[in-house]
Design goal:
The protein is mainly α. It contains three helices and no strands.
Length: 61
C-alpha cells in the first residue's frame, strides 16, 4: 500500500481541501465536526445527509 508513515490531513471545507492538495497531499479526510462547524452549526445531527454529501464532493470541482 505505502512505505513509511500515512499522513492524512483533515479539511473542513472546499477551500482548506484545495490548500491541502496544493501542498501535495494525495488523500484528504474530514470529520462530522469539521463539516458542521464550517457551516456554523454544532456537531451532531444538525446537518441533513444530503447537505453533507453535497459539501463532500465540492472540493473535487
Amino acid at each position: 500500500m505505502h512505505d513509511g508513515f500515512l499522513v492524512l490531513p483533515n479539511a473542513w471545507d472546499a477551500g482548506s481541501a484545495r490548500l491541502v492538495t496544493e501542498a501535495g497531499a494525495q488523500t484528504i479526510a474530514t470529520s462530522s465536526g469539521a463539516q458542521s462547524w464550517s457551516q456554523g452549526v454544532a456537531d451532531g445531527r444538525s446537518l441533513a445527509k444530503a447537505d453533507v454529501l453535497a459539501r463532500a464532493v465540492e472540493p473535487r470541482r
